Amino acid sequence: GENVEQHPSTLSVQEGDSAVIKCTYSDSASNYFPWYKQELGKGPQLIIDIRSNVGEKKDQRIAVTLNKTAKHFSLHITETQPEDSAVYFCAASQHYKLSFGAGTTVTVRA
Amino acid sequence: DVKVTQSSRYLVKRTGEKVFLECVQDMDHENMFWYRQDPGLGLRLIYFSYDVKMKEKGDIPEGYSVSREKKERFSLILESASTNQTSMYLCASSLWGTTRDSRATGELFFGEGSRLTVL
């Protein structure tokens, strides 16, 4: 089955700086790569996703890049703000079943 | 807004007890899921249902069963709870992919989670 590795496990950034989270996947047939954000006491919520026919996608301060050859994808958050502090999960799938990474706890320091 | 409601936020049970975790969604989604969240392990799929009375095993189904008698409700059952089932349980629903062969996956909408402690 699909195996998704996520790094780093924790990330502390100064407010206003950028944050980057990287994921690798094992199944070359995977074609859908979403990112979820989980705030304290809440369930994860989709923040951005990318499909395999696209190399990059941007939505305001967040962007995702995909390198299918190397089987890795990354989340970029620019101009970080306190509300970006959360746990972020990457995931990969080719159909209904998502395989999630272990998560990255992001802390934005004021 | 899609709402996925899990009946209990916090439960404490004893080893050997039967535990029911209930989940209800209000957006007529075909797919419903139960995940388990543990630190350092991310979210792992326990069971999936793509239609009423249909279910499929996920990555870690051992010790669990599920029930989907109505489209909006998906229940996770621990027949005999054990301490290694202490965890956060997340229910989710999605609209895409009405069959197991669907090549499309859509957004998962999660509930707020049920934290189960087994003593």
Q: Mean pLDDT of chain A, nearest integer?
A: 94
Low-confidence segments of chain B, ≥5 residues, pLDDT <50?
98-104
What is the typical, i.e. mean, pLDDT of chain B? Answer: 90
Biggest sheet layout of chain B = 7 strands, mixed
Number of helices of chain B: 0
User: Whole-number radius of gyration of chain B?
Assistant: 14 Å
Binned, the helix content of chain A reads: under 10%
N/C terminus separation of chain A: 41 Å
User: What is the number of strand segments of chain B?
Assistant: 11
- What class would the helix/strand composition of chain A place it in? mainly beta
For the CA atoms, what is the radius of gyration of chain A? 13 Å
Number of helices of chain A: 0
Helix content of chain B: under 10%
The separation of the N and C termini of chain B measures 37 Å
Could you give the topology of this structure?
The complex is a heterodimer of chains A (110) and B (119).
Chain A: E1 4-7, E2 10-14, E3 19-25, E4 32-38, E5 45-51, E6 56-59, E7 62-67, E8 72-77, E9 86-92, E10 99-100, E11 104-109
Parallel strand pairs in A: 2-11
Antiparallel strand pairs in A: 1-3, 3-8, 4-5, 4-9, 6-7, 7-8, 9-10, 9-11
Chain B: E1 4-6, E2 10-13, E3 19-25, E4 31-38, E5 42-49, E6 56-57, E7 65-70, E8 73-78, E9 87-94, E10 109-110, E11 114-118
Q: How would you describe this structure to a colleague?
A:
- The complex is a heterodimer of chains A (110) and B (119).
- Chain A has 110 residues and is an all-beta fold.
- Helix content of chain A is 0%, strand content 55%.
- Chain A contains no helices and 11 strands.
- In chain A, the strands form 2 sheets. In chain A, strands 2, 4, 5, 9, 10 and 11 form a 6-stranded mixed beta sheet that branches. In chain A, strands 1-3-8-7-6 form a 5-stranded antiparallel beta sheet, with no helix packed on it.
- In chain A, a hairpin with a 6-residue loop joins strand 9 and strand 10 (99-100).
- The radius of gyration of chain A is 13 Å and the shape is globular.
- Chain A starts with a strand and ends with a strand.
- The model of chain A has no long low-confidence stretch (mean pLDDT 94).
- In chain B, strand 5 and strand 6 (56-57) form a beta hairpin.
- The model of chain B is unreliable at 98-104 (pLDDT under 50).
- The termini of chain B are far apart.
- By secondary structure, chain B is mainly beta.
- In chain B, the strands form 2 sheets. In chain B, strands 2, 4, 5, 6, 9, 10 and 11 form a 7-stranded mixed beta sheet that branches. In chain B, strands 1-3-8-7 form a 4-stranded antiparallel beta sheet, with no helix packed on it.
- The interface between A and B is medium-sized, with 27 and 29 residues.
